[in-house]
Write a structure and sequence with these properties.
Radius of gyration: 41 Å
Protein name: TadE/TadG family type IV pilus assembly protein
Order of helices and strands: HHEEHHHEEE
Keywords: Membrane, Transmembrane, Transmembrane helix
Shape: rod-shaped
Oligomer: single chain
Structural class: alpha+beta
Pfam family, one: TadE
Number of strands: 5
Strand content: 15-25%
Number of helices: 5
Distance between the termini: 99 Å
Mean pLDDT: 83
InterPro entries: TadE-like_dom
Length: 180
C-alpha cells in the first residue's frame, strides 16, 4: 500500500508519465488529505444501497452451516432412531434366546416339573419386555422343545416407523436333552 501511495504521489507531481492507464484510474480515485498525503477514496455513490445489500447477502456465508444442519439433522436423527430400534430387536432376541435356553435347562435338570412350568418361567423372566409372547413347550422322547414368537415391534424402544415392521415376528426355538 505504501508503494502504491508513492507511485500516486509521483504521478500527482508530474514525475511519472501521465499516459499510463493504471496511474490515471488510480489518481481519479485518490483524494488529498490536509497533511499532503494521499488516501484512496471509495466511490459509494456508484451503486444504490439496496444493490449493495443484496450483493453482500449473496456473498456472505454466515449461517450457511446452520441451514445445512436444519436440513440434515432430522434425517440423521430418524436414521439413528431406526438403527437403535433394529439393534434393540437383535439385543432382545439374544436375551429371549438365553432365557428360553435357561428354562429348558432347568426342566432337563428336574428343577421345573412340566412344560407348563417352563412356559411360566420364561413368561416371568421376560415380563420386563412388556411384549406379546406366544410360548409353547413340549416334551418329545428325551428332549424338551420350546418355541417362542413375538412381534418385532414389541421389542423396539421407540414407537415410530413401526408400520414397516408390522409383519415381522421374532421366533426362537430351543431344544435340550432331558438329563433326569
Amino acid at each position: 500500500m505504501r508503494r502504491l501511495a508513492v507511485l500516486a504521489e509521483e504521478y500527482a507531481t508530474g514525475s511519472k508519465d501521465p499516459s499510463h492507464a493504471i496511474f490515471s484510474s488510480l489518481f481519479n480515485r485518490m483524494k488529498r488529505l490536509p497533511e499532503g498525503k494521499l488516501s484512496l477514496a471509495m466511490d459509494k455513490t456508484s451503486e444504490p444501497k439496496t444493490q449493495r445489500r443484496v450483493a453482500h447477502f449473496w456473498r456472505n456465508e454466515d449461517g450457511s452451516t446452520t441451514i445445512e444442519t436444519v436440513i440434515w439433522l432430522p434425517i440423521f436423527m430418524l436414521l439413528l432412531g431406526l438403527i437403535i430400534n433394529v439393534a434393540m430387536v437383535f439385543f432382545n432376541e439374544s436375551q429371549i434366546t438365553r432365557i428360553v435356553q435357561d428354562g429348558n435347562r432347568a426342566f432337563s435338570l428336574g428343577r421345573l416339573e412340566d412344560p407348563k412350568a417352563v412356559e411360566d418361567y420364561i413368561a416371568e423372566r421376560l415380563a420386563y419386555l412388556e411384549a406379546t409372547l406366544t410360548i409353547n413347550s413340549g416334551r418329545t422322547g428325551g428332549v424338551i422343545t420350546t418355541t417362542l414368537s413375538t412381534p418385532a415391534t414389541d421389542l423396539m424402544p421407540f414407537k415410530f416407523m413401526t408400520t414397516a415392521f408390522d409383519s415381522v415376528r421374532v421366533g426362537i426355538r430351543a431344544q435340550h436333552i432331558i438329563e433326569f
